[in-house]
Amino acid sequence: MSSLVEIRELTKAYGGKALAVNNLNLDLSKGKIIGLLGPNGSGKTTLIKMMNGLLTPTHGSILINGSKPGPETKAVVSYLPERTYLESHMKVHELVEFYSDFYADFSKEKAYSMLTALNIDSNAKLKVLSKGTKEKVQLILVMSRSADLYILDEPIAGVDPAARDYILRTIISNYNENATILLSTHLISDIENILDEVIFLKYGQLICHASVDNLRQTKGKSVDAYFREVFAC
Amino acid sequence: MLSKLIKYEWRSFWKIPAFVNLFLFIFTLFGIFVLRAQIWEIDNPFIQAMGMFVLMSYYISIIVISFVTTIYTAVRFYKNMYTDEGYLMHTLPVKQKALIFSKLVVSYVWTIITALVIIFSVVCLIFAAATASGADMMSFFDSVGDILITLLEIMTSPEFKETLGISFVPFVVILVLDCILGPLSSILTIYAAISLGQLFQKHKVFGSIISYIGIYTVLQIVNYIVQAPLMFSTALNASFTSFGPLMYFSLGETILFSVGFFFLTEWIMKKKLNLD
């Protein structure tokens, strides 16, 4: 099994505070949907930001397709941040152009068909759209790429349940067999059925990385129930 | 990729500086009108006050406008590179060099456009003032031409080199290079200061301002250290021959620091990026 992502001894310290990510070792293989799970402050977003080159690790390394985060990896990683990150004065169709200009793997047809399905006006400026609609636009842009690795940070947290279903279906139906999706969330029950593997993080450390089937068999309970047990307050 | 980055940067950047330049253009028209109408000769204090007000507003607007493009350059760079928008810009499959360069090109072009508009506007007003009293336009151009010819004669004379320590051609070349590279250097100083501000754990905007003041202070100290002996010899010998070497030094310094600031910005983006 070939590794798409290799993470070795990855550590991130913010100033004098505790380590946000602590000596993390992780391999992600191709063709999996992987849930990155953990309570708030467990280091999920910090890990994701380091994988995208937005944060510099204090120690350790990340290799994606054998390269450190840089222009080569950014061309094959499709990243959805947990915030609104697009220029708000731009219109939706301008954003589609922007993505299509910079990412060779972007499909305008896919983007417009999803925008139509969710009734989003492509002539609207981003700033006039509701928060939920903005998130949908962002997810559509990210999922219209044919990337090797999709990194989705809380993709369903801000949208209504109906759109959530559509988005999950979109995620599953829009990625090819060799691509991997790393999806961080705390809404586990909603996505448990689509996951192949789960990664549990706690205080920046790896608690568990297993296939969902294995976990269910060995623990005799759902991922959601196991999560509640591990992270019980 | 670079041309695409420049295209999108231009689309996001042009509105504010274009508006500001249009604003100055309108004020210039008002100024010309006030000067040509010779309203201070009209015996009405209200109209005279209005005329003064327009000219004062013009003067203030020139100062404000020269600042607006610079401040917008700083705000746009900070917002697009180091806030939420940085999540998009820093995950594009492009090199950091290209990101910096695209922003530099667009900011530079608008700085030059703004400078040219300001110069054009001032020249228009001088012309309007000079010809307001019904003076002959040709004689105005003649006197300007005379001044230029006299200036040229002085600058090409052997005394010019003997006095200032630099001959005419290199003097003009350095002057032109200073005009071209000066704005480039100012923009790169801003980029470096904002990027240095990102190394602060908190209060990154404050950190950027502190960094800018720090860079400015260091440059002043370097200038002082280099210039002090030359100034001293100038005072001692009552000669200005150190002026030429100072021009060379100043140009060299501009080039060196500009290159340095570019690579410092790139290094911070590459090795020290920490988006909140």
Unreliable stretches of chain B: none
CATH topology assignment of chain A: Rossmann fold
* SS element count, helices of chain A: 9
Q: What is the radius of gyration of chain B computed over CA atoms, rounded to a whole number of angstroms?
A: 23 Å
Range of helix content of chain A: 25-40%
Short account of what is shown:
Chain A is α/β, with parallel strands linked by helices. Chain A has helices at 44-51, 71-74, 92-102, 108-117, 131-143, 161-173, 188-191, 212-219, 223-230, and strands at residues 3-13, 19-29, 33-37, 59-64, 77-80, 149-153, 180-185, 197-202, 205-211. In chain A, the strands form two sheets. Chain A has a six-stranded mixed β-sheet with strand order 5-6-7-3-8-9, with helices on both faces. Chain A has a three-stranded antiparallel β-sheet with strand order 2-1-4, covered by helices on one side.
Q: Could you characterize what this model shows?
A:
The complex is a heterodimer of chains A (233) and B (276). Chain A contains nine helices and nine strands. Chain A has 233 residues and is α/β, with parallel strands linked by helices. Chain A has one domain (3-230): Rossmann fold (3-Layer(aba) Sandwich). In chain A, helix 4 packs antiparallel against helix 5. Chain A is globular, with a radius of gyration of 18 Å. A six-stranded mixed β-sheet of chain A has the order 5-6-7-3-8-9, with helices on both faces. In chain A, a hairpin with a 2-residue loop joins strand 8 and strand 9. Chain A starts with a strand and ends with a helix. The mean pLDDT of chain A is 89. The longest helix of chain A has 13 residues, at 131-143. Chain B is mainly α. Helix content of chain B is 85%, strand content 0%. Chain B contains ten helices and no strands. The two termini of chain B are 27 Å apart. The interface between A and B is medium-sized, with 25 and 22 residues.
